[in-house]
Amino acid sequence: MAHTIPEPSRDVPISGEYDVVIVGGGIAGIAAALAARRQGAKTLLIEKQFLLGGLATAGLIAIYLPLCDGMGRQVSFGLAEELLRLSVRHGYEPAGDHHSQYFCPAWLEGGSPQARAGERFEAEFNANLFAILCEQQLLQEGVALLYGTSVCGAKVENGRIKALFIENKSGRSAILARSFVDASGDADLCHLAGEHTATFAQGNVLASWYFQHTGGRFALRMLGFADIPDKYKQPGSEAEKGRRYTGLDAQELSELTCASHANILADFLSKGGISPDHALANIATTPQVRMTRRLDGAYTLDDAQMHTAFEDSIGMIGDWRKPGPVYELPYRTLYGNRIANLCSAGRCISVTDAMWDISRVIPACAVTGQAAGTAAALTGNFAALSVPVLQAALRKAGVPLHEGELFR
Ligand SMILES: Cc1cc2nc3c(=O)[nH]c(=O)nc-3n(C[C@H](O)[C@H](O)[C@H](O)COP(=O)(O)OP(=O)(O)OC[C@H]3O[C@@H](n4cnc5c(N)ncnc54)[C@H](O)[C@@H]3O)c2cc1C
């Protein structure tokens, strides 16, 4: 049997034309869309599911990790903070089974620096509410939203994406734009457009996070809690065992999903069937993979570069795993060397494997999303964009760029 079959070529209708198109409606895509729109760009957000939030909502990763450095200093601002506050606008969720604290009131207005030093600026939110609130925010601000739409190809000419090919209920069509943001989490658009990418060689452990109703409350069960990079792993630890998943193969993702479902069922039934105090409340509708494929960009940031000043910083993040480190994120981690009008945001920016574990989390995705969306609104050639112009726009939007600007 032949291993390939020619697909008939065809002309497809152009279904839209925008200044900025963002692929993927996770946290990075949401931040990118809001930022681009706030710069006045005609902006489209394309999402293959019928829900915004990506892993944070459909994936039930409902813990907004810290905006602070763990030493009492807030380091991530702008949309990272705005989205955290939006996520808990109507209340916090009770802590999951690994968290004793879901929100520290000291981080609200009037909180004392002493109290902040001991607690991190993080929150556990309701995934369903957050998804709806994000959707309403985007619509209010005039972002066009296309659900149920997969980006499945790119027409590249002279080092620029001319059009995206999309598939949805209406069939196949093309979308034109001046600039594009890959917020797919898996660098799908970078891959489709022929930009340099890299994969997470170690692969992902099986994660099966779900919500159950127990003890009169909604509780997050975090099965498959950690996927620590090799360099931090203890010999003989749980992290060393078990199958690894690349997250980039359809058959493998299907097997991961079935294995995750089986885990959830077994875990739930281990405490009996349904009772007034025991119910399976919510399972993820997207695979819970952390690191898959990323941009191999103009610069690749490493975790050793904490407290390093970068002239082209677009914002800062802390390290969710421990107090102390602060990272300035260079703009060059967002764009590559091949496709002039494409940049990435969120968990697929250009970082080393060790840095990936830090930069993939929700607040960091919002920081890079805001920068990517702002840049996309300002240019059709990311490498040529004046960094001071981008930085001025980010500062105006409330984003400090350098560690030296932080105070307690
Ligand atoms: C098990 C696990 C635990 C985690 N724990 C935490 C935690 O406690 N706190 C924390 O802050 N972070 C945590 N993370 C990380 C965090 O949830 C994600 O890295 C982050 O939410 C990623 O956001 P993103 O927008 O970059 O990507 P994603 O959330 O992956 O969003 C990408 C979006 O793009 C869409 N998409 C993808 N491809 C296409 C396409 N071709 N066409 C159209 N749409 C497309 C997807 O449907 C999705 O909505 C965890 C992750 C996992 C897997």
From TrEMBL:
Superkingdom in the source lineage: Bacteria
Spans through the membrane: 20-37, 49-67
Keyword Translocase applies: no
Pfam families recorded: FAD_oxidored
Keywords for this protein: 4Fe-4S, Iron, Iron-sulfur, Membrane, Metal-binding, Oxidoreductase, Transmembrane, Transmembrane helix
Sample GO molecular function, one term: metal ion binding
InterPro entries per UniProt: FAD/NAD-bd_sf, HdrA-like
PANTHER family: COB--COM HETERODISULFIDE REDUCTASE IRON-SULFUR SUBUNIT A, FERREDOXIN:COB-COM HETERODISULFIDE REDUCTASE SUBUNIT A
Protein name: FAD-dependent oxidoreductase
Source organism of this protein record: Luoshenia tenuis
The organism's taxonomic lineage, starting at the top: Bacteria, Bacillati, Bacillota, Clostridia, Christensenellales
